[in-house]
Amino acid sequence: MTWAGAYDAAVEAGATEAEAVRRADGAVRQTQGSFAPEDVSNIESRTPFIRLFTMYYGYFNMQANLLGTEFANAMHAGGLMRGAGRALYVFTLGFMLPAVLGEAILTAVRGEDWRDDDEWWLDDLMWFFFGAQYRTAAAMLPGGAVARSVFSVYERLAGGPAGAYEERITLSPAIRTIEETVRAPASVYKAIAGEGSAKRAVRDGLSAVGVVTGHSAVTGAIARPAGYVADVLEGETEPESALDVARGLASGQSRR
Fold first, then answer.
1. CA–CA separation, 98 vs 104, rounded Å?
2. Residue 94 — φ and ψ, nearest 5°?
């Protein structure tokens, strides 16, 4: 959508086909990020070991740079008072809406339920609205996973909405895969002995198979629906509708 919008705007402005394509490509690069060497930040161009902990940071780093540049342009063009309107526009469309809508999509996919007490619906809504923005802002900072974990602990203590907690410090999907692979023998054994979670055994076992065979992308895609099916068969969750089943198979997560 970004590319198509930039392309159409360039064509309407009288640009040639080649120039319209270049502008559209540039819009995507500046708003979605790029893996080209000239577009990668210094923190992402370190050793392979360091990059293991910065996977997917590029998008949030790009977003932080873009917002910072736009805020600076607004201030330089009109000063603090005259530039406040454009700064609010940048904040709303460039930060607040993407953060809240992204959180809404994740909440829907996870099937999270808010508290049943109607008296507190506004309280839950405020936690959701401001918490989504905080988590997005934290993701823009190196080491932001630590800040998000601290905030999640505070959310739990302060009685935030169910399912909003993210207390684990997840630095990289690669680190999580290594954890699951190392844990696989024990979790599979416990599941067979009837003392552990079948869902965890399925996910850990498939992660180990993916690492050994070199097809982690394939086993990772299988692990999500397989883990959900294991939860259903174990009686840990009961789907309420066909839509709930589809959501669970797509996300791999049981309704909270």
1. 10
2. -95, -20
